[in-house]
Amino acid sequence: TQLLEQSPQFLSIQEGENLTVYCNSSSVFSSLQWYRQEPGEGPVLLVTVVTGGEVKKLKRLTFQFGDARKDSSLHITAAQPGDTGLYLCAGHTGTASKLTFGTGTRLQVTL
Amino acid sequence: DAGITQSPRHKVTETGTPVTLRCHQTENHRYMYWYRQDPGHGLRLIHYSYGVKDTDKGEVSDGYSVSRSKTEDFLLTLESATSSQTSVYFCAISDGRSGNTIYFGEGSWLTVV
Description:
The complex is a heterodimer. Chain A is an all-beta fold. Chain A has no helices and 11 strands. Chain A has strands at 5-7, 10-14, 19-24, 31-37, 44-49, 55-58, 61-65, 71-76, 85-92, 99-101, 105-110. In chain B, 0% of the residues lie in helices and 58% in strands. In chain B, a hairpin with a 2-residue loop joins strand 5 (42-51) and strand 6 (54-57).
C-alpha cells in the first residue's frame, strides 16, 4: 500500500497569514492532485501536477511537485476565511486510474 | 458539477442487516469508485469499476461487495453491516483522461447501531 502523509494535520491561523501544507511519500507517482473538501460535501479538485519540479499557481495558492515526484506542497498566501476546509493530496500511479489519498490537513482561517 | 447522485444520503441501520448504497452518474464515465472517509484515515478505496461488470477490490474491501450492471450505476452492498462500517461513503467517477480527474458525489452518511 502506498502511503501519503500530510502535515500538519490541523492548522488554525488568522486571516492574512501564509501557510504551507506538505504531502510526502516514499513512492513515486505519475501525477499528484490536491483537493479541497468542505463540510458535508465531496472533495473538489484544485490542481493536478504531473512533471517533477512543476509549479502551478491558482490565485493565492501555489502547488509544487517534488523533483523525484514523491512529494508535493501547497502554499497559501494571505489566507482568507474562505480557504477554510480539508485539504487532501492524492497520488496516481497509473494503475486502473486509482488514486491514493493522504490523510488530509484541516485548515481553519479566522478573522 | 459532475452529474453524480448518491442514495440514500443518510441512513441508520442495525448491526447484521444488509445495506445497499447506490451511485448514479450521467457523465458516461468509464471508471466508478467507492471510497469511505473516516477521521485519521482520509479517503480509502473500497472497490472500483473499470467498465460494466468489471470490478476490482480496493484497499478496504472486506465486508463489501459491488455490482455494475449499467454504465451509469454502481452499487455498494454491505452484506451484514457492522459498527466498524459506520462511515461516510463517497462515490466517484473518472473518464481516465484529463489528468485523471476524479469527481466525487456528495456522500452517504451511514450509521450502524
